[in-house]
Specification:
The chain has one domain. Helix 3 runs antiparallel to helix 5. The radius of gyration is 17 Å and the shape is globular. The chain has a three-stranded antiparallel beta sheet with strand order 2-1-3. Strand 1 and strand 2 form a beta hairpin. The longest helix has 18 residues. It contains seven helices and three strands. The protein has 148 residues and is mainly alpha-helical.
């Protein structure tokens, strides 16, 4: 999802289009082999991806740290799965859970200070650039096709 327009394309699709989605064709990171997922497999995979993103959510200070790209993708993917009626994982999330920064609840490193103040689009752009760079280094293609 990071480094491509994959999630944006699904978000832009209507409920009818999401219901007509037949699958996905993409490249596996391990060996760049082509992989095909049916619609059912894709929705299941996106639920697993949502669960995986939980590992990277900040433990505290969500109002400050939710410009982090892991948090942004978590919120967007959760909303997409709910809208499509495909949220199969028992992952509850409510935006009002975000609490203000509490004293000493966030590391006081320079990196945290910078990331917490960058606009979301800058964080997403930097993350996308990094992922595209990593993929290029190992000869992995981020190309994909949604099959309608």
């Amino acid at each position: 999802m990071v480094g491509t327009d994959f999630l944006s394309r699904l978000e832009a699709a209507s409920e009818e289009e999401l219901g007509a989605l037949r699958g996905l064709s993409c490249r596996r990171v391990l060996d760049n082999a082509e992989v095909h997922l049916s619609s059912e497999q894709l929705w299941a995979h996106l639920n697993y991806q949502l669960i995986h993103l939980i590992d990277f959510l900040p433990a505290t200070a969500w109002q400050v740290t939710f410009s982090d790209y892991f948090a942004v993708f978590f919120v967007r993917l959760h909303a997409l799965l709910q809208r499509a009626g495909k949220l199969l994982a028992g992952v509850a999330y409510q935006p009002e859970w975000a609490k203000p920064l509490l004293p000493n609840s966030r590391p006081s490193s320079w990196a945290h200070w910078v990331v917490d103040r960058l606009p979301v689009r800058v964080n997403l752009s930097l993350a996308g650039k990094a992922i595209r760079g990593y993929s290029a280094e190992i000869g992995h293609s981020l190309d994909y096709a949604l099959l309608w």
